[in-house]
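This section describes the prediction task in plain terms. A model, or a person checking by hand, is given the sequence of a single protein chain and must write out its three-dimensional structure as a string of tokens. No templates, partner chains or ligands are provided. The sample shown here is typical of the held-out split.
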Amino acid sequence: MALGALGAGVAALVEGRAIDHPPGVLAPDEPTQRLVQRAPFAHGEYELTPLADFELEARVLSVEKYSMDGGARVSPIDFALGWGPMSDSAVLSHFRISQGARFFTIYPDEQAIDLQTAMRNASNMHLIPADGTLKDRLKRVKPGSIVRLRGQLVSVLGPNNFTWRSSLSRTDTGNGACELFYVEAMEKL
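The expected answer:
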């Protein structure tokens, strides 16, 4: 019995471990975004209004799942994502990355690239899975994974006058700077 519990614990640790990569840029391109004007659509008890078609290939820097905050019913997971230099293990070795309360923070050491470049090549994205199957797939993604995500940046209207709006810039920081990303497709690379 104890041996089985130990084996299950070891398996859980291995399964949740970040994926390592050798040095080198793994996702060289910036996200692509095209502003759109489309009618709102229903997503469960929420109304989503598309703001832009959005696609990116990026390295997952951190994953945070939510179940209790005000947005968890529409966006149960956040990915901190990096592209360009922020997809390179050699660059990332000079940063500590944390996520929580719908924010992500990077802490550079003295040898890190400048913070402005780092922040232009990384973002915290609040993910709205298009369906339950995609939700399950997104929740299984580990830090270090290289993913291609496609969908739309949106604004959300929900029960009790709940509102949430995506940033449309990769250069902003702070409150309101995250992308609210309705994910229609994900590919692990």
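For orientation: The mean pLDDT is 89.
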